[in-house]
Amino acid sequence: MNLRVVDTGYGLERISWVTTGAPTVYDSIYGNAIDYILTESGLKTDNRNYMGEITRIHSSETEKNVREIEEDIERKMKNYGEIDWVYVDKIRQAYILGDHCRSLIHMFRDYVIPSNVKVGYLMRMLLRRSFRAMDFLGFKGDLMDILKIQEENLKGIVDGFPHKFAEEIIREEKEKYIKSEEKGREEIERILKKNGKISENDLELLYDSYGIVPELTRQYLQEKGIVIQIPADFHSRIVNKHSSKKNEEKQAPLLDFMDLETRTLYYDDPRLMEFTAIVLGSKDNMIVTNQTAFYPTGGGQPHDMGYFKIGDKKIDVLDVYKVGKAIVHVLSSPVKEGTRLRGYVNYERRRQLMIHHTSTHLLLGITRSFLGDQVWQAGAQKGVETSRIDITCNIKITREIADEIERRCLKAITENRKVTVRNLEWNMATSKYGFRLFEGGVPLSDHLRVVEIEGIDVEGCGGTHLSSTGEIGFLKIISVDSIQEGIQRITFCAGAAALNYVQGIEREYMEIKEYVRATSEVPTRVRESMDELISLRERMKELLKNEAERKFVSAEEKEIDGIGVKLIHCSEDEKKLLIPMILKNGSNGIIVCGDHITVVGSRDKVAESLYRSLFSEESQNKGKVLMGKIGNVANEKLIK
After folding, report:
1. Mapping DSSP to helix (H, G, I), strand (E, B) and coil, where does residue 468 land?
2. How far apart are CA 536 and CA 542, in angstroms?
3. Residues 6+ apart with CB under 8 A from 591
4. How large is the C-alpha radius of gyration of the chain?
5. Residues 587-612: what's their mean pLDDT?
6. Residue 6: Cβ-neighbour burial (10 angstroms; 0-12, 13-18, 19+)
7. Cα(413)–Cα(472) distance, rounded to whole angstroms?
8. Is 392 in contact with 376 (CB distance < 8 Å)?
9. Helices (DSSP H) in 450-596: which residue ranges?
10. DSSP codes joined into one string, 393-445
11. Phi-psi sector, 245: left (phi>0), alpha (psi -120 to 50), beta
12. Distance in angstroms (rounded) separating the CA atoms of residues 635 and 624
């Protein structure tokens, strides 16, 4: 259509359903996929005409429970004869499987990686419900074959489907699904044994932790004669739970600053570090000025720091954040409305943040070009000393891969790629660059601020940036960690921060070199020193064991209230070896170590009796090994 419209949810599929006369909307829009699923499940494909009537009654009886609806269907559809509800359930699962595969086509095309948060969670949920439908149907085909059918159905709408990526994800998720289902059944048994029932919270736990859909839980419990009700909004409740985000915006005096607007000088010229301004609004130690070069916290970039001057008086800027169109400055002391002042931005801090922000874009673009389109930004935080970017990626980033990413980043830096910033109209920007523009979030405006590193990365971004990659100088990846399934965190530094990091490593290296007295190969000398240390420790352990055995054998024998004991004076390390020796030998002992006494008995009662004899009181603890202090000993002659 030439006319661009907002999707109101009317559903073009329903028009197709009405005009084709198919039993259901599913048969209308992708009946070939449904036919394939039924055929590979050993089910008939030509006797499901009454599914249309069942669907109509189901959709109009939303207030009734499932059994009431089924009774209503049987009453209204007597001319169809007795309804085979097992067959109906299987047709439903075939529809579910076909519909999920259509959704999966879109998600695979966008390289969504299954995880336990946000869209990754939806991906995992759809895959596991698809696997469950295949199991229920006894489906003998391949999930990829259904996806290929749906890919053909969506030709011209979804092109460039990544088959290899989809196959890898499906294989990995199927393995996890099988394992989680086994664990889930064990968990169902555990919950039943503990609580005697399965609650709604238990259903959520089983689904979240083990991927066990409530229908499977209900089926498993039915085999045990237990009936449960599944909440009608179960899946929407789960999705909402995993899609919710914490509101991280600062609470500000909106009413006081709502109508104010600050000109953003940091966008006019990100290198502007001095400016004059007038205070438009003031409350406590917060002010809003008519213009500012101080960048507010946002987009993972921390706020600028610096100070204002009023005459000779210097007032530090402690925090900066945005409220509507106003930029709020939190100061070290109050300033009255109408005051003229001059602002000074900390250049070194701003410069380093610009380096790290531009490096984040560079790192994202280089990593995607190297590892593939499954790389998406999942979060980022820019700092002065180090920064980090979280990416979705189904490939583990090893040290070797990180080294190659560093080399490619260095190549782009030495090529001095141009960095351009443009404000584009929304439709123009998305039609040219696509929805990867929104990796850092979706801005609420009719224009997008687009930051492009020539030939490497394009992203919607509100941060401050360099003019070219050559200004970065040097980028060093510090670490790569898996923070959750499917998401890896790359911590890095660039520019002066990278130099500081490397120099710090060099200082540590030189200290180690001096400490191990290495003249050339430090790693070799360190290994030799460690091997020598390990050998000495093993030798010390052997000597300690021998000494403990000697003291055990030669220990003074005493009798306390008719109980024979070994009295041993030893070190703390020897005590750890002597206690198991005494117990293993079936002996009794009193071990004196510093100002502490350890009573060891062959039985609990023996140890407690010895403790009473020594301390003239009951021990607060029970067992074969009891502790006390020499200063509390009532009969000191027993341990001399």
Report:
1. strand
2. 10
3. 568, 569, 570, 575, 578, 579, 597, 598, 600
4. 36
5. 91
6. exposed
7. 7
8. yes
9. 496-515, 522-553, 572-584
10. -SS---HHHHHHHHHHHHHHHHTT-BEEEEEEEHHHHHHHH-GGGGTT---SS
11. beta
12. 21
Q: Cα-Cα-Cα-Cα dihedral of 521, 526, 529, 530, to 10°?
A: -150
Tokens at 9, concatenated: 């949810």
- Which stretch, 28-32, 254-258, 380-384, has highest mean pLDDT? 380-384
Residues 579 and 625 sit within 8 Å (Cβ to Cβ): yes
Residue 251 confidence (pLDDT): 47
Mean pLDDT of 539-548: 91
pLDDT in tens, 288-337: 999 999 999 987 899 999 999 999 999 999 999 998 899 999 999 999 99
289 near 261, Cβ under 8 Å? Answer: no
- Residue positions counted in the chain: 640
In 3D, which of 276, 282, 338 has the Cα closest to residue 309? Answer: 276
451, amino acid identity: V
- Strand boundaries in 150-273, DSSP class E: 263-264
**Contacts (Cβ under 8 Å, ≥6 apart) of 458:** 433, 436, 437, 450, 451, 452
Give dist(CA 67, CA 78) in Å, integer: 17
Does the predicted TM-score (pTM) go above 0.70?
Answer: no
For the beta sheet containing 419-425, the strands, ordered from the edge strand earlier in sequence to the opposite edge, are 419-425, 447-453, 457-460
Structure tokens at 310: 């009023």
CB 458 within 8 A of CB 452: yes
Q: What is the dihedral of CA 352, 354, 359, 365, to 10 degrees?
A: 170
pLDDT band at 49 (very low <50, low <70, confident <90, very high): low
Dihedrals phi, psi of 459, to nearest 5 degrees: -155, 140
Higher pLDDT residue, 78 or 135? Answer: 135
